[in-house]
Amino acid sequence: DAGVIQSPRHEVTEMGQEVTLRCKPISGHNSLFWYRQTMMRGLELLIYFNNNVPIDDSGMPEDRFSAKMPNASFSTLKIQPSEPRDSAVYFCASSNTGTVVLAKNIQYFGAGTRLSVL
Amino acid sequence: RKEVEQDPGPFNVPEGATVAFNCTYSNSASQSFFWYRQDCRKEPKLLMSVYSSGNEDGRFTAQLNRASQYISLLIRDSKLSDSATYLCVVTFSGSARQLTFGSGTQLTVLP
């Protein structure tokens, strides 16, 4: 199994530019999560999808952030326009909400995208 | 008050030592509990689930105390490779799929 795949691994951009982060979840997983991690705030859930449908986006900081999941094998997180305070590591995770109770909640993380907005 | 609180550390211990981390959670209706491990500049990875009766995986023992709303992780005979940040993770009733992460406890095992 290839695991959760995120791209790019690193992104350096200038303030005001659009940034698109990509994620391919583990095949067969039906839930996908986007997180942001900073030293100050730790790991924060931004949004999650179940069966490609956004379930809870209350963690999305503001309208500059948007996420889509057009199919079961791909999701994007877009920031437009980007600001220096968006600099962070963005993780995508997936899980399989199957029949085993505890297994439902085990999330597998991608390697993350390290974003720097100058 | 944060939903999941941990002592950030850092904990610096010699090889072979036993070290314990605690974590408290605020929502008494919490359902599932985990410890994740995150190495420097890497992604979080599941270390172990925490069951009500307590559970052990090699040198690692996890305990859950629902009455006091805390979870613990005990590492025996610590190795250099145990150096990492340990994240306490909880799911809350009504949001079973969502994980709420503590801020993590940093452990450094010294030679």
Give the structure's gist in a few sentences:
With 118 residues, chain A is mostly beta strands.
Overview of this protein structure:
With 118 residues, chain A is mainly β. Helices cover 3% and strands 53% of the residues of chain A. Chain A has one helix and eleven strands. In chain A, the strands form two sheets. In chain A, strands 2, 4, 5, 6, 9, 10 and 11 form a seven-stranded mixed beta sheet that branches. A four-stranded antiparallel beta sheet of chain A has the order 1-3-8-7, with no helix packed on it. Chain B is an all-beta fold and 111 residues long. In chain B, strands 2, 4, 5, 9, 10 and 11 form a six-stranded mixed beta sheet that branches. A five-stranded antiparallel beta sheet of chain B has the order 1-3-8-7-6, with no helix packed on it. Chain B is globular. Chains A and B meet through β5, α1 and β10 of A and β5 and β10 of B.
- Biggest interface, chains and residue tallies: A-B, 23 and 20 residues
- In percent, how much strand structure appears in the residues of chain A? over 45%
Mean pLDDT of chain A: 91
Distance between termini of chain B?
37 Å
Major β-sheet profile of chain B = 6 strands, mixed
What integer is the average pLDDT of chain B? 90
Helix/sheet category of chain A: mainly beta
Helical fraction of chain A: under 10%
Multimer state: heterodimer
Number of strands of chain A: 11
What is the H/E order of chain B?
A: EEEEEEEEEEE
Count every helix of chain B, treating DSSP H or I runs of 4 or more residues as helices.
Answer: 0
Q: How many runs of DSSP E, i.e. beta strands of chain B?
A: 11
Global structural class of chain B: mainly beta
Uncertain segments of chain B are none
Task: Please state the overall shape of chain A, judged from the principal axes of the Cα atoms.
Answer: globular
